[in-house]
Fold this sequence. Notes:
By secondary structure, the protein is mainly alpha-helical. Helices cover 73% and strands 0% of the residues. The protein has helices spanning 6-22, 33-44, 56-79, 84-110, 117-124, 129-138, 145-173, 177-198, 202-210, 218-236, 241-255, 261-286, 290-294, 296-314, 326-336, 341-352, 358-383. Helix 10 packs antiparallel against helix 11 (241-255). The chain starts with 5 loop residues before the first helix and ends in a 17-residue tail after the last helix.
Amino acid sequence: MTSPDLGSLVLVLAASTAGAILSRVHRRVVLPTVVVEIVLGILIGSEVLDIAKPDAYIEFLANIGLVFLFFFAGLEVIEKHVQRRSLALGTGGWVISLAIGLTVGLLLERAGLDAEGWLLGVALATTTLGTLVPILSDAGLTSTPLGRAVLGTGVAGEFWPIVVISVFLTGVYGAAVEVILLIVFSGLVALAAAAAVRARPYRVIKALRETMHTTGQAAVRLTVFLLAALVWLANDVGFDFVLGAFAAGLVVGLALDTPEGGVVRMRLEGIGFGFVIPIYFVVTGMNFDLDSLLSARGLSLAALFVLLLFVVRGASSLLWVRELSRRQTLGLAFFGATGLPLIVAIVGIGTGRGAIGADVGASLVGAGMISVLVFPLLATAVAGRRPTEERPESVPIPEY
């Protein structure tokens, strides 16, 4: 058994730490942390300095980070308490985006692009809600009609892509019997969610509360156990593990929807956003095919994907034209087209299964990085900011 490369692990942790600091170097220039982490991963990886390599141990930690990324995506769906109408319009808009994305993806596949059209279409139909929430808060837009529209669009742009890739990965790469197992698994998750909401035994709740501020941390341990159990169950019956992680986020989100739940959430964020999720994005940078991106073809594909992200996800804003002004609708289109974390995850899953070529994946991730750097700035510039005196106090929220 080979020993872990501690030097590479230290460099990965140094890059994840530097990412959090460098993204806040100047108060007027706030970079998305995930972009900085990927860039630092590219820097220490084989494509540039070649001073760190992701061995089996580092890859294992990165996979745990991916599990927590989808777990928090599920948690966010419950936590945001998005209005039903906003969620309905967001879902309807996402269906439009998916239809356009699948059409474009299949056309590109037929044109010879090294990527399966359906997976490319889903990647183009994602939105990164975690990156948008702090931007909305800083601009004072959270409680405005535009803010509610972005939340509805963002939740749909995270929730439905995960469901679709989980189901289609099973259907495309799995056996027919696993479709039946998917129904059973969904039923188990629904029962677990119902139990999380209704069944709150006094002694269990008391034990969880009493250890909340001690070394026991029973609530955190129970959450991690549930996450691991659902990931194992999903993987064991033939689904992609992301479905189990996302389902765990939904269940835990329902259970933590209490006054005491915020403390537990903070502890979980410390593990996820403070440790394993940054490792995942740094390792993504270390494995990034920079040469392919910087080639003429790679840059052309990246530019095409940036345009397609705006067209595919921006189309969902058309459902809001009666409720928003023209400028706000255009701003919503730019906000909705902002996507990176799920794109990185989908590319990682696709390349691992041979469904997306490394060069196409590099261009798609590059386009995602451009989208989180440029589109929110264009959105706030077009839609405008709320007057300073009307802005509510900002609440720090992880930007993944």
